[in-house]
From TrEMBL:
Involved in controlling patterning and neuronal circuit formation at the laminar, cellular, subcellular and synaptic levels. Promotes neurite outgrowth of both axons and dendrites. It is a lipid-anchor; GPI-anchor. GO terms for biological process: animal organ morphogenesis; axonogenesis; tissue development. Keywords: Cell membrane, Developmental protein, Differentiation, Disulfide bond, EGF-like domain, Glycoprotein, GPI-anchor, Laminin EGF-like domain, Lipoprotein, Membrane, Neurogenesis, Repeat, Signal. PANTHER family: NETRIN-G2 (PTHR10574:SF27), NETRIN/LAMININ-RELATED (PTHR10574). The lineage of its organism: Eukaryota, Metazoa, Chordata, Craniata, Vertebrata. This is Netrin g2b. Residues 377-404 are annotated as: Disordered.
Length: 620
């Protein structure tokens, strides 16, 4: 190893060692100090759980080599990359133009929303723009002119990329926060949704869930979906504008109140089932169910003051790269992990071609501070330690061990094919029974089928030159029995060879579309249905062998003219009215409603004397 003479001064590029415009001439002692400081900064960065380096040069007896580390991209604001969709169509104000007023000045309705005028328009993209010169821009809905029909809106945010939350989600509402709202997430690009948090001024009344706060959660229930009243009570639209989904409060349970012990958080993410998945998403959705009311009931004489308006949606997250990348770039309109460790894919979710000597695995935060990269290894012919289904411990050695890998692979497949043919002839000549399928030949005597312990039978597929497992047990399927059958999902806390690696979905047959669920056990629910197993109803629906829209309720769909709502299913009307909401009079043709009752009363008055006379005669 070459070293510089101790008498020769060295210029070092550390900015903290520079003097007025001139590089500092460094002595050996100062070089040692600077090196020590650099090492200390590096170690502290790793110790705080940043995992921002995928590899580092280390010195060995054979020279400098790269040592791989588990790594992840830095957190960033991702709102500028999100795509926004607002439903239902026509919910955004301005087409046609309309006037509105605020809850603080309900009778000064001089403001206007007009989609044809850029200065008066409030389109959805204003939720993610950068506000300059102090001018606040916002998206706004139509006003509640159709009351008592609910004023509801869905705002779907998508990134076409799996992300992991690193800080609180913040939604800023102008003119008042909703009194009822749900934040939902999707982990499969919007195909299915699951609740993230409920918001209401009265959680029991709105969702039949007791109110709670994120800061009161514990390690045992940190992933529970809660309902909070903290952001829905009326305190004035200018005093409190922000609604939060509290990520930091949940992190603090394991990392401390100032999040200094990130090592503790990452350790729990490895050991605690579902914790990391709880902060993982591909899409977010805001379901706005009831606007701000100003602390009172709905006032029907002025419905122009009820609407939703959002000026900003802030999401701090990092790309999910399965601890195989430290960079995530915006390429061709999508966020893309810059994969290391011989992995590839948008999330670094598979091994690169030629590096499949063992099954792909996500990196691990443990052991700290560098974690386990679980690097994909290069596929070499004749390997007995890999987990690829092409590799078998009992295969004979063949000539050409020093050939390039492609040629080795070709010879390797010929050897496997030769073994199958010889074994098949042996079985047939000896009178043994052998099962032949169109897709290949099944063998029961392979010692290394690489089926994760869920099968000991393999099939060689000739035209693909691959070996695949057959008759996978324990509700598994796939080439290596690595996936779960339909109707089951993977137990992330179990090892791949665990008999209980696949858990039954148990979807409610009345509330779900089918018996399948996503990777976290959430079933795909029918419209109006909610819950992990689709056995609960969303607000505005009632359960009766499935969820059906409320016919009536005590807030929005009020029974009119003295009617009473019976279990949200029907209105019990007074005798003089009829209709779904008792909104229609029973009197037709302009007749007086009390005409029939007046006629009945007059007849009764005429009959009373006659009845009295008859009773008197009978008594005498």
């Amino acid at each position: 190893m070459l070293t510089r003479p101790t008498s020769e001064p060295t210029v070092v590029p550390f900015p903290f060692l520079r003097t007025l415009g001139n590089p500092l001439i460094c002595t050996p002692a100062m070089r040692a100090c600077a090196g020590l400081l650099y090492l200390l900064v590096h170690v502290l960065a790793r110790a705080r759980g940043q995992y921002d380096q995928c590899k580092s040069l280390v010195s060995t007896d054979e020279g400098a080599v790269w040592e791989p580390y588990a790594c992840q991209p830095k957190a960033q604001a991702v709102k500028e990359y999100m795509r926004i969709r607002v439903e239902p169509p026509g919910i955004t104000c301005g087409n046609p133009p309309e006037r509105f007023c605020t809850l603080e000045n309900p009778y000064l309705c001089s403001d206007e929303c007009d989609a044809s005028n850029p200065d008066l328009a409030h389109p959805p993209q204003l939720m993610q723009d950068r506000e300059r010169s102090g001018l606040i821009t916002y998206w706004q809905t139509v006003t509640w002119q159709r009351y008592p029909e609910p004023l509801q809106a869905n705002i779907s945010l998508s990134w076409n990329k799996t992300l992991e939350l690193t800080d609180d989600i913040q939604i800023t509402f102008e003119y008042g926060r909703p009194t009822i709202m749900v934040l939902e997430k999707s982990m499969n690009f919007g195909r299915t949704w699951q609740p993230y948090q409920y918001y209401a001024d009265d959680c029991m009344d709105a969702f039949k869930i007791p109110a709670s706060r994120a800061r009161d959660l514990t390690a045992a229930n940190v992933t529970h979906v809660i309902c909070t009243e903290q952001y829905s009570s009326w305190v004035g639209s200018k005093n409190e504008k922000v609604v939060r989904f509290e990520v930091r409060s949940r992190f603090a349970i394991f990392a401390g109140p100032r999040l200094l012990n990130m090592e503790g958080l990452y350790t729990r993410m490895e050991s605690m089932k579902g914790l990391r998945d709880f902060f993982t998403f591909t899409n977010l959705r805001l379901r706005l169910l009831r606007p701000a009311l100003g602390g009172t009931y709905v006032q029907r004489d002025n419905l122009m003051k009820y609407f939703y308006a959002i000026s900003n949606v802030e999401v701090l997250a990092r790309c999910k790269c399965n601890l195989h990348a430290s960079l995530c770039l915006y390429v061709d309109g999508n966020l893309q992990c810059q994969c290391e460790h011989n992995t590839t894919g948008q999330d670094c979710q598979r091994c690169k071609k030629g590096f499949k000597a063992k099954t792909w695995k996500s990196g691990s935060y443990l052991p700290t501070p560098n974690g386990s990269p679980n690097t994909c290894s290069q596929a070499l012919a004749g390997s007995s330690s890999g987990s690829s289904p092409h590799r078998h411990n009992h295969q004979p050695k063949h000539p050409g061990q020093n050939m390039i890998p492609v040629e080795k692979e070709r010879i390797h497949h010929k050897e496997i094919k030769k073994q199958f043919i010889e074994a098949l002839l042996k079985f047939l000549l000896s009178g043994g029974q052998q099962t032949v399928q169109l897709k290949g030949i099944i063998y029961d005597d392979f010692k290394d089928c690489e089926c994760n312990g869920h099968s000991n039978r393999c099939s060689y597929i000739d035209f693909l030159n691959i070996v695949t497992c057959v008759s996978c047990k324990h509700n598994t399927r796939g080439q290596n029995c690595e996936h779960c059958r339909m109707g089951f999902y993977k137990n992330t806390s179990a090892e791949p060879d665990d008999e209980n690696v696949c858990i039954e979905c148990n979807c409610n047959t009345m509330g779900s579309l089918h018996d399948r669920c996503n990777g976290t056990g959430f079933c795909q629910c029918k419209e109006g249905t909610n819950g992990v197993k689709c056995d609960e109803c969303l607000p505005g629906y009632y359960w009766k062998q499935g969820c059906f829209p409320n016919v009536c309720d005590d807030e929005l769909l009020l029974c009119q003219n003295g009617g009473t709502c019976v279990q949200n299913q029907r209105c019990s009307c007074t005798p003089d009215f009829k209709g779904v909401l008792c909104q229609q009079s029973r009197c037709d043709g302009g007749k007086k409603c009390n005409g029939a009752s007046a006629l009945t009363l007059s007849l009764a008055l005429l009959l009373c004397p006659l009845l009295a006379t008859l009773l008197g005669s009978a008594a005498s």
